[in-house]
Amino acid sequence: MIPRRFRDVSFELAENDGIAPAVLDAVREFADQVEDRLDSGKGLWLMGDVGTGKTTLAMLVSKAAAEAGRTVAIYSLPRLLARIRRTYDAEAGEQSYIEFFERLTGVDLAHLDDLGAENRTEWVIEQLYALVNERYESQRSLVVTTNLDQGDLEEQIGERVVSRLVEICGDPLPIFDDDRRLRVSAEV
Fold first, then answer.
1. For residue 166, what are the CA distances in angstroms to 127, 141, 160, 161?
2. How far apart are CA 111 and CA 85, in angstroms?
3. Which of 76, 78, 93, 183 shows its CA 20 to 30 Å from the CA of 148?
């Protein structure tokens, strides 16, 4: 469930990586209270530049949920949309769209990485609205990362989806810094 690259992440590593203390504290608080947050359908929205640690922080929350015995689904948006498309061609015995959708909306925590990285089409907006709205109505938690600010995200996926994200997740936690991946590659 947790991708290999993120299995060993920890708050200590994130702290040593120079992530803003206020953001790190907010994510740590969410992870420490993960059961209460999931039970109340609360989420977390991380927004900022490429390579600033958003996915790492989101993975810390997903790990906390999994360690608490909760169900978690982790998808990058492009991968999620590709998975949904595959259900349309499902043959007998394979997972149908409805089965996949119910599984995705039924987990305790849906972790959506790189929201806004998808091509904007009516179909994409429809899928995102259906997913976010179902989780909103059933008070299921979301952890979202995006490189887009709220206005740009509204243009990309629509005001209705972003409005629901704000109610589920609260205001986005901004993470702006240099791309840590480029920093690491320069040190090698």
1. 18, 12, 10, 9
2. 19
3. 183
